[in-house]
Amino acid sequence: MDKILQNLSNLTRMHKSLLELMTAKTEHLIHDNIDELDAIIKKEQKHIAAIEQLEQQRQRMVTDYLKANGFAHSAAPTVEELLVAANEQERNEITQFRAQLLQTIEDIKIVNKQNQKLVYQSLQLVNMTLDLLQPTPPVNQTMNYSSKEVRQPTNMASKTYEV
């Protein structure tokens, strides 16, 4: 059980570290620090890979623990299943790690949504700037690149209509 608790501690620590990176990423998004942003994204990817590895280890350890103690388990055992098999002291520690981990994950989701909005707004600004730099020709004016004929726009205002 000590290894499982250590794993839960490591998972919590890695998620908190990921949250710190994501918060720093927010600042770099706001201030357009592309080089720093790139470095943070690379660190985030490493954190996510480490978290995935820790999660796989947790699942293996919990499976082994539940098997050794005669408890049924699912294919991907949860912390909830571990709580059933743990004694009271272990349950308290597991519950604390679980609460910290769930809160950190919720915080990560919030910061991630904020960062997505910032990226979306930046993308809108880039697209708007590109539209301003590359104006499209008016709808009633067609471009003709042939040397034989040059079309002039039709002047609809000069025509009169009877009602």
From TrEMBL:
Any GO BP annotation: bacterial-type flagellum assembly
Classification via Pfam families: FlgN
Keyword NAD annotated: no
InterPro entries linked: FlgN-like (IPR007809), FlgN-like_sf (IPR036679)
Keyword list, A-Z: Bacterial flagellum biogenesis
Keyword Cell membrane: no
Gene3D superfamilies: FlgN-like
The protein, known as: Flagellar protein FlgN
Organism of provenance: Lysinibacillus alkalisoli
